[in-house]
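QA checklist item 7 of 12: single-chain prediction sanity check.
[x] sequence parsed
[x] length recorded as 100
[x] structure emitted
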Amino acid sequence: MAGIPSSVVAASGLLGGYGVARWTKKRPLGGVALAAAGAVAAREWQRKAGGKTAAALSGAYVAAFVGSHPLAKKIGAWPSVFAVAGGVALASWAVVDRRG
């Protein structure tokens, strides 16, 4: 995964997890995609910025997943997923990736 920013991995996990769940109609399969990308992102966050940062960004990743559900009732499923994925990507970039 060298060369792929952790912000892209995290956003892709949220988008891909939802996409897999929706298109396969198998929510657990979407959860596997979500968890796999989250684990890769967390490993990169820990490697680049330490455990506390990794824990905080992992918490944001989980909160984004959870928060996308009520938000989807207000703005729709895909707009919700794009919004939370963008938020996590921005946080990851600002805290970890922009350092280089």
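[x] summary fact logged: The helical segments are 6-24, 27-49, 51-75, 77-95.
[ ] second reviewer sign-off
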